[in-house]
């Protein structure tokens, strides 16, 4: 059924439907313009001003509708909603058709060459390969660093280098081939056979090493004139550098000058001077320091005249503590009074503290 409206109400209704259609059209345009410009752009501002004008006009028309009778107001409202909905629907259909035409007329220049393949794990970085490469590179750099350091730092090559640093050099003792051959003699079980004839000063007194030790004897004779006692300690920085060899042969060549010499083996861990000089190891230094031996009868004569030895004795559990006892000081004082020279053979100074302890008692 149709409803007749006065001409004025019909004009107001047509104006409101027209304004709603224009507002819907502006909404579509704003969605497109907002992708290209900001709100301060002239085009965007023109659109906003136009929409505001339509809103104002719509408000005026609503005021005119309010002045109408209730029945006409309801008729106008329902009719406007129906016609506005129809207008929106038609606009959406038109927009859909436009988009379909645009899609059909667009020819794309992109095509799928190969589909993407999902990797089962992390492609990069490869941590295992990086760690392996870092290790290899580190080893190579370390080797290069060591080679360069050894190339430019060749160590001490002559006594003059020590003298330039203020260190006194009393003698330079060469390696004895005769002694080296003797030291290589072993038993069937592989144990070295230390014999009294292995002492270089006795077995080969004309060896160059013995001549160097005689030079050392002369240098020490003058150097010890201002010493506080006649006790001399021999030590080294590491094992097997020849300190026992020098100590034993020095004692032998000094005793050949008609001086009484006592050699004390303070290496209670690995000392072997009793084997080198052909004496026993009974009533040695360790027994004397724990009070089981007599100091006055501790020295054992060797086959070399005026050359006595106090061997190391049995290996104690606490060599350093024994050397710090008053008993050791008494032994050194007794030896200093009864001998012209007392030589003390000590362990390596970097390995244990024994040499530092014994050093307090020497001149």
UniProtKB/TrEMBL annotation:
It is a multi-pass membrane protein. It catalyses: L-tyrosyl-[protein] + ATP = O-phospho-L-tyrosyl-[protein] + ADP + H(+). SUPFAM superfamilies: P-loop containing nucleoside triphosphate hydrolases. InterPro entries: AAA_dom, Bact_polysacc_biosynth/exp, GNVR, P-loop_NTPase, Wzc-like_C. Residues 241-353 form the AAA domain. Keywords: ATP-binding, Kinase, Membrane, Nucleotide-binding, Transferase, Transmembrane, Transmembrane helix, Tyrosine-protein kinase. GO terms for cellular component: plasma membrane. GO terms for molecular function: ATP binding; identical protein binding; non-membrane spanning protein tyrosine kinase activity. The chain crosses the membrane at residues 129-152. Residues 70-150 form the Tyrosine-protein kinase G-rich domain. It is found in: Cell membrane. Belongs to the etk/wzc family. NCBIfam families: eps_fam. This is Polysaccharide biosynthesis tyrosine autokinase. The lineage of its organism: Bacteria, Pseudomonadati, Pseudomonadota, Gammaproteobacteria, Enterobacterales.
């Amino acid at each position: 059924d149709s409803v007749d409206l006065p001409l004025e109400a019909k004009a107001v209704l047509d104006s409101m439907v027209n304004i709603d259609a224009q507002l819907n059209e502006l909404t579509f345009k704003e969605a497109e313009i907002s992708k290209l410009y900001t709100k301060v752009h002239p085009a965007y501002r023109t659109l906003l001003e136009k929409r505001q004008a339509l809103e104002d006009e719509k408000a005026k028309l609503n005021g005119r509708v309010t002045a109408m009778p209730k029945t006409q107001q309801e008729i106008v409202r329902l009719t406007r909603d129906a016609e506005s909905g129809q207008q929106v629907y038609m606009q959406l259909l038109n927009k859909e058709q436009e988009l379909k035409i645009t899609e059909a007329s667009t020819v794309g220049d992109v095509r799928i060459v190969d589909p993407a393949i999902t990797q089962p794990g992390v492609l990069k970085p490869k941590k295992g390969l990086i760690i392996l490469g870092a290790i290899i590179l580190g080893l190579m750099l370390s080797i290069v660093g060591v080679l360069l350091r050894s190339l430019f730092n060749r160590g001490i090559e002559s006594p003059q280098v020590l003298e330039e640093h203020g260190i006194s050099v009393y003698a330079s003792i060469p390696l004895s081939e005769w002694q080296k051959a003797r030291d290589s003699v072993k038993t069937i079980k592989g144990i070295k056979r230390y014999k009294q004839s292995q002492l270089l000063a006795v077995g080969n007194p004309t060896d160059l090493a013995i001549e160097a030790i005689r030079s050392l004897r002369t240098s020490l004779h003058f150097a010890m004139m201002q010493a506080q006692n006649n006790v001399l300690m021999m030590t080294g920085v590491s094992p097997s550098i020849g300190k026992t060899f020098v100590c034993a042969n020095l004692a032998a060549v000094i005793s050949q000058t008609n001086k009484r010499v006592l050699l004390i083996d303070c290496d209670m861990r690995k000392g072997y001077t009793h084997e080198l000089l052909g004496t026993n190891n009974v009533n040695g230094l360790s027994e004397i320091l724990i009070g089981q031996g007599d100091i006055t009868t501790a020295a054992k004569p060797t086959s070399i005249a005026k050359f006595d030895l106090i061997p190391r004795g049995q290996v104690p559990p606490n060599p350093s503590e024994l050397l710090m006892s008053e008993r050791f000081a008494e032994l050194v004082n007794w030896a200093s009074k009864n001998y012209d020279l007392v030589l003390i053979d000590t362990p390596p100074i970097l390995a244990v503290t024994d040499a530092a302890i014994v050093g307090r008692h020497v001149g």
